[in-house]
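To close the chapter, one final illustration. This time we ask the reader to focus less on the individual chains and more on the assembly as a whole: which components sit near each other, and how the overall shape emerges from the parts.
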Amino acid sequence: MIRPLLRMGNPLLLQRAAEVESLGTPELLALIDDMRDTMRAAQGVGLAAPQIGVSLRVVIFGVQSSPRYPDAAPVPETVLINPVLTRLTDATEDGWEGCLSVPGMRGLVPRYTRLHYRGTDEHGHIIERIAEDFHARVVQHECDHLDGILYPARIRDMTQFGFNEELFPGQDLQDD
Ligand code: NI
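The assembled structure is written out below.
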């Protein structure tokens, strides 16, 4: 079921989401189905549970190819619960981000270029990976949602934040 997306300003997006205690439950599987439906309908590359009003540490992400990120390597379709991120470099790179909770806008956000992440899928199977570049960016963006952080809070130069049509005239950009 496609669920309404909370937008920036909703206090739930600023909360630290709670750990998921029980894996494989019908409630959790239904939540993930709704997250997938909602992300696909919005053509997003990632979604965190708080964005549909559920304050739990669940994110989904994945993209084969995105017209918005034509140079990005594919990111595996992933359900990640109770994620723990460990950065593997101090190096950051600026990249343009959008968010389904900040529709119509883009901002230039620094992210670590290489990290390790660990969590489980919805059935409790361990997921453990090293991610770089766009994959690492997506994971950092989605996991930030679980700590109540929206990407505008990460922007260093606020001249690099604005509406898609103003920043990138003539491009048909959607939100993610
Ligand atoms: Ni987002």
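The chain has a mean pLDDT of 95. The beta strands are 46-48, 58-63, 75-87, 92-97, 105-112, 114-120, 126-132, 161-163. With these observations in hand, you are ready for the problems at the end of the chapter.
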